[in-house]
Design goal:
CATH topology of the largest domain: PH-domain like
CATH architecture of the largest domain: Roll
Distance between the termini: 70 Å
Strand order of the largest sheet: 4-3-2-1-6-5
Strand content: 25-35%
Radius of gyration: 38 Å
Number of domains: 2
Structural class: alpha+beta
Helix content: 10-25%
Order of helices and strands: EEEEEEHHHHEHEEEEEEEH
C-alpha cells in the first residue's frame, strides 16, 4: 500500500507491505530542490511502536509493530520519533481500507512544486567597449562564445563599401564647415567615419568614429541599414546628428539596383 505523507513541508512516500507487515519510507525529490538525493529514507523493515535502543539502564525494544489496521487518516504515522501526516493514498490503498476496514482515505499523489516565476533577464547597457553583440555573450552564457556571422553575406559583400559625404547639423561656427566621410561596410553592416582635412579649420584629419555597428535611436534602437542613409536626409550616429550631402558613383549605382 502507498501513503503520500509529509513531515513538515517535506514530502515522502510511505509504503506498507501486506505480505509481512513491513514498511519503507522513500524521499521525494525534485530538480534543484537543494537536498541530497537519498532515495530511501527508511529501509524496508517492521516499524516498532517504540524506538528505545538496548543500552544499559534502558528497557528493551518492545515486540509491538505497526499493523495496517492501526493506520487511520486522522492519525499521523510515527517512525523513530519523526511524525508523518497522511494527505492521500493510491487507488489500491483506498479500495483496501474501504472494503476491509470501512475507512475512507482520500486519493492523492506526489505533489509537484509550483512553477517558479520566470526570471526576466536584464540586459545591462553597453559599456562602450568592444562590439555590443559580442558583449551580450557574457549575459546569456557563463563562458561566452564568439558570435556567428552570416558567412555567405560576408563573402558576397566583402570589399563592398558605401561612402557618403556628410556634415554636422549644427549652428556652432567652428563645426559648420567640418566635413565627414561615412563608410558603410556591406559585409557586416558596420560603419566608420573619417574626417578629412579642411583648410584653416585647425582640426587634424583622421578617423573620427571607429568601425562597428551603430544603432538608430530614432528607429527602435535597431542597427543602421543603408535604407536609413538617404542623400539629403539626416541620421544620428553615436549621439551626433549628420546631414548627408552626397555619395560616390559606386554607392549611387549600388543603391539604384538594390533595395532594403
Amino acid at each position: 500500500m502507498r501513503f503520500f505523507v509529509k513531515s513538515g513541508e517535506l514530502p515522502f512516500v510511505f509504503h506498507y507491505f501486506l505480505a509481512d507487515d513491513t514498511v519503507e519510507i522513500r524521499e521525494v525529490h525534485y530538480a534543484n530542490d537543494g537536498r541530497d538525493s537519498f532515495a530511501v529514507y527508511l529501509r524496508r523493515q517492521k516499524l516498532p511502536e517504540t524506538f528505545e535502543v538496548n543500552q544499559p539502564g534502558h528497557k528493551f525494544i518492545g515486540d509491538r509493530y505497526l499493523t495496517c489496521d492501526e493506520i487511520t487518516f486522522d492519525k499521523p504515522l510515527i517512525a523513530y520519533g519523526r511524525v508523518f501526516d497522511i494527505y492521500g493514498v493510491d487507488k489500491f490503498t483506498q479500495d483496501y481500507y474501504l472494503s476491509g476496514h470501512q475507512r475512507h482515505f482520500p486519493l492523492g499523489d506526489i505533489e509537484q512544486p509550483k512553477a517558479r516565476d520566470p526570471v526576466v533577464v536584464q540586459v545591462p547597457p553597453h559599456n562602450g567597449f568592444g562590439d555590443e553583440v559580442d558583449s551580450l555573450g557574457y549575459v546569456y552564457k557563463l563562458i561566452a562564445k564568439k558570435p556567428k556571422i552570416d558567412f555567405f553575406k560576408y563573402v558576397d559583400n566583402d570589399k563592398k563599401i558605401l561612402r557618403y559625404t556628410a556634415r554636422f547639423n549644427t549652428k556652432v561656427p567652428e563645426d559648420v564647415d567640418r566635413r565627414f566621410i561615412i563608410s558603410f561596410y556591406l559585409a557586416d553592416d558596420t560603419i566608420s567615419i573619417f574626417e578629412p582635412a579642411q583648410k584653416n579649420s585647425g582640426i587634424i584629419e583622421g578617423p573620427y568614429l571607429e568601425r562597428r555597428k551603430y544603432k538608430n535611436v530614432d528607429k527602435g534602437m535597431e542597427f543602421i541599414t543603408p535604407s536609413e542613409l538617404p542623400i539629403g536626409g539626416d541620421i544620428k550616429i553615436n549621439g551626433y546628428n549628420y546631414h548627408l550631402l552626397g555619395c560616390d558613383d559606386y554607392t549611387t549605382k549600388y543603391l539604384a539596383t538594390h533595395t532594403y
